[in-house]
């Protein structure tokens, strides 16, 4: 199943990048020599003789399939085709898997590796589960399928983009791979030559790994390939003129650009199937050197692809014009550059905004929204409360107390749970700490306005903490702590192999039942034994009379927690294919919507059981009164607060709030995923699992540039309008990208 998922993913990417149209660009890979020979291990250990030539990824895959030493590092300059070779190698090796001894190549990006936090083996296991959720199906593959495949060397990680990391981080990553992985484990790395040499100087060579470098693409071969990509007819004469020029001037700007697969793909996107005459690129006055020509091609790439798609289907381009798409992509490139990353993960979009990145900002916004919903019901509740009606106390201070408590409880839960993971232990700690301030406020109110009992402030504080615990603790135990997870949440229900998860579900049910039951018993006993305002008379039968209701409350919450654990522990259904941005967003959003309802309902569990259980009720409550009370709590009292706390345990609300904020000011489109999917189809972005990347680091750097270089002509679209827009400064590096994708367009 993993082999099928990998094949499906990268076959689709190869089509988008046009790696086989008309054929893969001819790049010859040879072992490094001369001063770079020290980057590789001894020849006797690598199994690759000096001087051997691999004419493309197909031959390299054939060597791998028959070799006992399967470790290779691809080095080269920017645009030399390392990532394209990795993709072609992956597909070629999958075609040779007649024997189970041939490992499954899995392309991963190094940008998510944090060796100071986790080992290389743990990172690889986590990345496999994130990219291919089918491995999380414990029913069919056991509790640790990813770890089993890695331990048996049935998976060959193809780690792309080592050079995109900062120098210190890059060195730590390579050291972790050198020291933490079995030297017999298959592995492929891609990195720029200078960056890899710097890392090797710090931590040594990768054991048993050969280092291969590419030879330049023959300009004549590149021109021939471009001519075959274009339509037959008069334009073929222009391509023959280009071929003659690059053959006559092998050191000219155009020949230098065509010497790399990236340059070939840029020229193809700029000229093939368009109105631009390829002979314009031979103008030595406009393009005096390689850098100027490459900058021109990068700057016109996005307008050219979108203008071509708009010409074919004017209503199909999302946003209505290529200029809008160019502006959105420039903002996205600048935001990624400021974060120092080459991966756009939708669940990290909130890092692009200072307001949503701040825990205080998110907590204040969510708390204010929840309280705004509950304010009308809160005012009515305070005015009609027994304290105000019977004792004629002023209702404004009581309203201020309740309002301030609600304003603080939700932000406090979000802040206290931000870096916590364990549900039972950390949920209890978060709820307890978050209720301290409301308890102190309640004690202060009792001390100022209530003088019937000396112990009144203490009892009021304890009762406030107990009530808040019974309302919010079930929410945290079922939905999880309200902090944005590192990865989107997912799962599915299944009754197969139920014994594999039954023990864990029973343990979780027992733990949650005990914790919630104890909290519910405490608050029910206090409420039952509270005989008068400010006075508390404890009777021995108080606790015993409420045990049944406490057990019911604990059992209900425990069952819901067990169901939530069962759902998420199964991963995704087998056969769903690799993870994509849309599928991961859809799964996380589904859980978020479920938690909204669950959070609102869980805050009412204790109220429902207390009103229904005879031992907890000293008076009969009519069905109508009970329904009105329940509806009021669900809609305008504690229900919205519980829903707000529950939904913030998923990634979707953080992403949605940030996306809407950027869309409101025009930085991003309203339908961001549709825009990204279109950019992916047109070849501006590439997809690696659930994240997007720009097709090459140089393209991201060009789009993130704060201004256009005066030496680079402003690209012109079909309608004659310019397309240059300011954007943010770029930092960092990126793995070298693939070829241009299809200029065709499918409506989003």
What are the key terms here?
748 residues; mainly alpha; two-stranded antiparallel sheet; 9 strands; 6% strand; elongated; disordered C terminus
What's the short story on this structure?
It is built from 32 helices and nine strands. With 748 residues, the chain is mostly helical.
Can you walk me through this structure?
The protein has about 750 residues and is mainly alpha-helical. It contains 32 helices and 9 strands. The strands form 2 sheets. It has a 7-stranded mixed beta sheet with strand order 2-1-7-3-6-5-4, with helices on both faces. A two-stranded antiparallel sheet has the order 8-9. The longest helix has about 30 residues, at about 500-530. About 50% of the residues are buried.
Span of the ends, CA to CA: 29 Å
Percentage of β-strand residues? 5-15%
- Oligomeric state as shown: single chain
Overall mean pLDDT stands at 79
Total strands: 9
Assign a percent range to the helix content.
Answer: 55-70%
The main sheet orders its strands as: 2-1-7-3-6-5-4
Q: Biggest sheet: strands, sense, closure?
A: 7 strands, mixed
Structural class: mainly alpha
Give the overall form: elongated
Query: Cα-atom Rg, whole angstroms?
Result: 31 Å
Uncertain stretches:
531-535, 708-748
Q: How many helices does DSSP assign? A: 32
